[in-house]
């Protein structure tokens, strides 16, 4: 076997720490990861499909190289899951639970690269298990599953490259980046911030190898189909990003800093902050300070462009792994170890209650604190009830008119809910002009009646001969679509091929108000 000889660092760069590392305590690490998957799958069938999962489910039936608001990997995985396990919620959420276990394993591996011993690695695994990031992305099927894993993996591989001075790791990074970009484009933000950290604070030798530009070429080649799709379709992701920033600009400004303390979990905030400080100040971690500096740089970028605070979470997760090493060195007494264990346990409990369907939905609704904070729970309920109420409107139509009727949801979750639950009630096909749902099909010209959910009466009134209100969606739970108006519109004034171009929209529908925000809107959600 050929041994890679470490090259001597330049006079301006700190040498890496000694290469000797503590072996990974695989048994407790793997047991922790397995417990994560088992816990997630045990809760996977509760409450119901998340609004974004309904969209992903529909997208899996219309596979393409890209969508207006996301790359294609998640829809492809959903297609495979449904083929293997049927149209079931637990089967739909199997891959997210497995990816969460991989994230749990990566935390101890990062701690090990930073010199953490067996106990530090085990602590990193426990903290990963207790983190809000792993719980949320492990429960909901979506782009965040792969985005989280790619961010963490890329950072781990870079840290390992710096320690070992093995630039062949660029090949692994290239594969992770290429695949990651087929799930979510946000990975570019991490690459820019880590790259800026390396250029500003070193070690810069990682770029002085032919493998770096070659790895960039490999990553681009892997992601090229989805990148080409974006270019050939007019870069709709940029319009989507602008619309999302506009919709959430007020919320992002007011909640950005508090969210930094809540995303991993309030009780583990001291741990990842300790990891950040140590990466910036510890002499033995000087070669890895680019990871520490990437975080404040990312915060500044997001504040300037109006990005969401949640975008920093995966990088905070890496800092949490570093914090486990700090905590291990600090907790040399039973009392201090008890403090670390207590904070980790409290974090696990609070995140499980807020992010996982651990309690009955009525408990979330009746508690004033939980009803305001556990919003993700309410995005998973109410869809069958909405479908049932739409069916009441549909059954009120004459039989001959029902044959000419379709259903229109103003946002993709509404159309996705009808697609999922509508067959139980004999409902016709649902359509929506929202994002890529507009590409999943449009009504035929023989359809002359449409039941709308949450649509703008003024817009539809100008497109049909008549529109009449038919009540509103009512739910005792604080779901975001409560109060969305139903209409029955008849007599389209143009062929559906022409109407559809006027109904297409890219953006975000504000919860509770049904206001559609696009890149051209003058204000965001209130």
Explain what this protein looks like in three dimensions:
The chain is built from 24 helices and 7 strands. With 526 residues, the protein is α/β, with parallel strands linked by helices. Strands 2-1-3-5-4 form a 5-stranded mixed sheet. It has a two-stranded antiparallel sheet with strand order 6-7. A hairpin with a 6-residue loop joins β6 and β7. α1 (26-43) packs antiparallel against α5 (94-113), α5 (94-113) runs antiparallel to α7 and α6 crosses α15 (313-330). The radius of gyration is 25 Å and the shape is globular. The protein starts with 25 loop residues before the first helix and ends in a 9-residue tail after the last strand.
SSE order and pairing:
Elements: H1 26-43, H2 51-59, H3 73-85, H4 89-92, H5 94-113, H6 118-130, H7 132-139, H8 143-164, H9 169-181, H10 187-201, H11 211-232, H12 236-262, H13 269-281, H14 289-305, H15 313-330, H16 334-355, H17 361-366, H18 368-373, H19 375-378, H20 383-395, H21 399-402, E1 405-409, H22 412-421, E2 430-431, E3 449-453, H23 457-461, E4 464-472, E5 485-492, H24 496-503, E6 508-509, E7 516-517
Parallel strand pairs: 1-2, 1-3
Antiparallel strand pairs: 3-5, 4-5, 6-7
Radius of gyration from the alpha-carbon trace, in angstroms: 25 Å
Span of the ends, CA to CA? 63 Å
The main β sheet shows up as: 5 strands, mixed
Q: Using DSSP, what is the number of strands? A: 7
- Which secondary-structure class do the elements indicate? alpha/beta
Contiguous helical run count: 24
| Helix content class | 55-70%
Spatial strand order of the main sheet: 2-1-3-5-4
């Amino acid at each position: 076997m050929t041994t890679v000889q470490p090259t001597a660092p330049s006079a301006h760069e700190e040498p890496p720490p000694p290469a000797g590392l503590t072996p990974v305590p695989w048994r407790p690490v793997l047991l922790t990861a397995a417990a994560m998957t088992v816990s997630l799958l045990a809760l996977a069938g509760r409450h119901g499909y998340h609004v974004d999962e309904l969209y992903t489910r529909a997208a899996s039936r219309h596979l393409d190289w890209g969508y207006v608001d996301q790359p294609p990997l998640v829809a492809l995985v959903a297609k495979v899951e449904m083929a293997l396990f049927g149209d079931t919620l637990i089967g739909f959420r199997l891959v997210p639970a497995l990816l969460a276990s991989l994230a749990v394993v990566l935390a101890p591996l990062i701690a090990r690269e930073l010199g953490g011993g067996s106990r530090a690695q085990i602590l990193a695994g426990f903290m990963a298990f207790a983190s809000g990031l792993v719980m949320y992305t492990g429960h909901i099927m979506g782009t965040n599953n792969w985005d989280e894993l790619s961010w963490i993996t890329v950072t781990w591989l870079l840290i390992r490259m710096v320690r070992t001075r093995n630039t062949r790791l660029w090949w692994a990074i290239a594969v992770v980046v290429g695949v990651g970009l087929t799930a979510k484009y946000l990975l570019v933000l991490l690459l820019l911030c880590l790259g800026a950290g390396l250029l500003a604070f070193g070690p810069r030798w990682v770029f002085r190898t032919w493998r770096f530009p070659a790895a960039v070429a490999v990553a681009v080649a892997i992601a090229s189909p989805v990148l080409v799709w974006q270019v050939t379709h007019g870069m709709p992701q940029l319009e989507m990003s602008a619309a999302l920033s506009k919709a959430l600009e007020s919320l992002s400004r007011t909640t950005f800093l508090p969210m930094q303390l809540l995303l991993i979990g309030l009780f583990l905030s001291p741990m990842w902050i300790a990891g950040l400080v140590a990466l910036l100040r510890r002499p033995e971690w000087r070669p890895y300070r680019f990871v520490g500096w990437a975080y404040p740089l990312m915060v500044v970028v997001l504040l300037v462009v109006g990005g969401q605070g949640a975008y920093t979470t995966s990088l905070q997760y890496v800092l949490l792994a570093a914090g486990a090493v700090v905590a291990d060195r600090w907790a040399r007494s039973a009392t201090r170890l008890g403090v670390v264990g207590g904070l980790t346990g409290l974090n696990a409990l609070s995140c499980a209650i807020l992010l996982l369907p651990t309690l009955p939905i009525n408990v979330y609704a009746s508690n004033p604190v939980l009803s305001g904070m556990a919003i993700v729970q309410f995005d998973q309920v109410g869809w069958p009830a909405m479908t049932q109420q739409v069916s009441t409107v549909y059954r009120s139509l004459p039989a001959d008119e029902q044959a000419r009727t379709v259903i229109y949801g103003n946002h993709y979750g509404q159309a996705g809910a009808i697609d999922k639950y509508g067959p139980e009630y004999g409902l016709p096909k649902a359509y929506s002009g929202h994002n890529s749902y507009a590409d999943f099909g449009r009504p035929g010209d023989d359809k002359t009646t449409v039941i709308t959910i949450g649509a703008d009466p003024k817009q539809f009134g100008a497109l049909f001969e008549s529109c009449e209100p038919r009540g509103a969606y009512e739910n005792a739970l604080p779901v975001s679509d409560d109060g969305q108006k139903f209409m029955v519109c008849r007599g389209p004034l143009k062929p559906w091929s022409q109407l559809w171009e006027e109904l297409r929209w890219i953006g975000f529908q504000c919860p509770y108000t049904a206001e559609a925000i696009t890149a051209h809107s003058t204000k965001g959600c209130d």
